[in-house]
Design a protein that fits this description.
Order of helices and strands: EEEEHEEEEHEHEHHH
Largest sheet: 10 strands, mixed
Helix content: 10-25%
Strand content: 25-35%
Number of strands: 10
Number of helices: 6
Distance between the termini: 29 Å
Radius of gyration: 16 Å
Number of domains: 1
CATH superfamily: VC0467-like
Shape: globular
CATH topology: VC0467-like
Structural class: alpha+beta
Length: about 180
């Protein structure tokens, strides 16, 4: 099992039925004794930044559903530390947060593309010990993140790709039905 730390991916077990996390991949951004925080990478509710932020008119960057917590908060990850200051490096080349005004400015000038940034409405959160319990219960499969998975353009394939890249029994899991009783 991969060490649970910022920069890992939590891949939902094929049979996880929680509608917030069914067939999801979560990028873990914070893991402390008090709790953990991350963003679902493969849920796109159909919003653009212009739909959600008053001074973002004309900016069509998509906003993903980051998780069920604080659905009125906006967060982002990116791979542009030379353009967006103040981010926290999660793993090599992937940053969490930074100066949002710089994001808006860059997007208005078309100097920021969808492949550079992921914006999230809400986040996925776990209180003290909750994620550790879910991991022990095998609700999640862990692996190291990489930019090609985190910024995958084919978000519908993120869960499948994250498992297939692990090989072996994980490749087989991509064919499991959501509900084995329907098999």
């Amino acid at each position: 099992m991969t060490t649970v730390a910022p920069g890992i991916l939590l891949i939902s077990d094929p049979f996880l039925k929680d509608p917030n996390f069914m067939r999801s991949v979560v990028l873990l951004c914070e893991h402390r004794q008090e709790g953990s925080l991350g963003f679902v990478l493969n849920r796109l509710p159909g919003y653009s930044l212009a739909d959600l932020v008053l001074n973002a008119e004309g900016i069509s960057l998509p906003v993903y559903d980051g998780g069920p917590v604080q659905k009125d908060s906006l967060h982002f990850i990116h791979q542009c530390p030379n353009k967006i200051t103040g981010g926290i490096e999660l793993i090599d080349g992937i940053f969490w947060g930074g100066d949002f005004e710089e994001v808006l400015s860059l997007a208005r000038k078309n100097e920021l593309q969808q492949k550079d940034i992921r914006l999230f409405l809400g986040y996925s959160g776990w209180v003290e010990g909750q994620l550790d319990t879910e991991l022990q219960d095998k609700s999640w499969i862990t692996r190291n993140a990489n930019a090609s998975l985190v910024f995958n353009a084919e978000i519908q394939q993120t869960w499948t790709k994250a498992l297939k890249d692990l090989g072996g029994e994980y490749t087989q899991m991509t064919n499991y039905p959501i509900d084995p009783q329907l098999n």
